[in-house]
Amino acid sequence: MLVRMVYNSVRNMTKARNFAFLIVVALLVFAILSLLSNTSSAASDDVNKEYSIVPENDTMALCFESLQDTRKLLYSSTDNDNDIEPEPIIYFVTPTYPRREQVAEITRLGQTLMHIPYLHWIVADDTSVCNNFLNNLLKKFGIPYTHIASPMPEFYRTKKLVPRGVANRRAALAWIRNNNKKTGVLYFGDDDNTFDLKLFSEIRSTKKVSMFPVGLIGDYAISTPVVKHGKVDGFFDSWPAKRKWPVDMAGFAVNLEYMGLSPNVTMPYKAGYEEDEFLKSIGLKMQDIEPKANNCTEILVWHTQTKNNKPPKIRISNGILRNNQFNLGVLLKKLETMGVSHISQSEGTAAQITKDGKSKSLISWFS
Ligand code: UGA
Ligand code: MN
């Protein structure tokens, strides 16, 4: 519109007026450009700008859309038929430990496992006391589970390389032995990893030891067996460290009958070498390994890590915390229980409430 107006007027003008007009336009363009280059004013303009919902200059491509619901029920009706062999149980062992992200991690993992039938979740917490809050969370998923409190011996905590999750996995191995679990499949799934649902149908058929790639590991971004003619023939892992079995904890599953053949199954407190030592202790041989995930060409588990930030301290008066006329007291106390944040009477970031774009102290909000 503006362009057309300028063009028309330019055409109708004499050459002299035309020249003067062009100078005015050039000055205008210069003024606009210098205004845009002023970042502080551009930033404040940005905040106040109304963004239209329909993209104007954005590139957007709709790639795929499915309007069909193809989800399957967990237990198909044929499962009740007596002549069908029962599915092997997957014993999914998760070491976990108290820190501010614990509830978030366990929520995400629990909701992944909710999709998996015939699974027994062994959650071993690196703490000496049973955490009731955690237990109530575990109960809600409806998955058969065992909640263990299995603290790492203090001695190892002070070491330069701490053997993380070992006390927990040892406790889970002891539970399996003490409860005479002799069939099924064992898998070590850390609380912060990401699991594709397909992983479970793959590992369920493990006869001895199955192996598969784990994404987001080390300088190769993957740790995987190397498969030749359908057989595992080596390993691709950026930290070989002279390990016989250079694999990640999430990269293998073990059949319990097979494990039962070895009398000295263990996982020593040897940081970095837990997988290697465990697999040696079950007497693993190269020919015993079954490659999964389409001959190790698919990534069904990811070694994701959650960024760890310090819990903030929020300054808020006790009176307001106890006031049950509004939600903040309940909410902040809950976060304190989970270790996500702390409440203090005298220190930390002062609690404020924002309304109509203005922030006020809680006292003045109440009055
Ligand atoms: C990597 C491997 O993926 C783990 O299988 C291995 O146990 C670990 O290194 C190690 O050997 O140190 P990474 O992501 O570096 O894992 O370690 P974390 O996720 O911090 O810890 C592994 C597991 O142990 C987690 O499930 C975590 O909840 C648990 N853990 C961690 C504890 O139980 N106590 C701790 O003090 C720290
Ligand atoms: Mn991890």
UniProtKB/TrEMBL annotation:
Active site: 275 (proton donor/acceptor)
UniProt main location, coarse: Golgi
Membrane topology: Single-pass type II membrane protein
Keywords: Glycoprotein, Golgi apparatus, Manganese, Membrane, Metal-binding, Signal-anchor, Transferase, Transmembrane, Transmembrane helix
CDD domains xrefs: GlcAT-I (cd00218)
InterPro entries hit by this protein: Glyco_trans_43 (IPR005027), Nucleotide-diphossugar_trans (IPR029044)
UniProt-annotated binding residues for Mn(2+): 192
Annotated pathway: Protein modification; protein glycosylation
Gene name tied to this protein: 5565758
Name of the protein described by the UniProt record: Galactosylgalactosylxylosylprotein 3-beta-glucuronosyltransferase
Keyword Hydrolase included in the entry's annotation: no
Phylogenetic lineage: Eukaryota, Metazoa, Ecdysozoa, Arthropoda, Hexapoda
Taxonomy, superkingdom: Eukaryota
Cofactor(s) needed: Mn(2+)
Localization per Swiss-Prot or TrEMBL: Golgi apparatus membrane
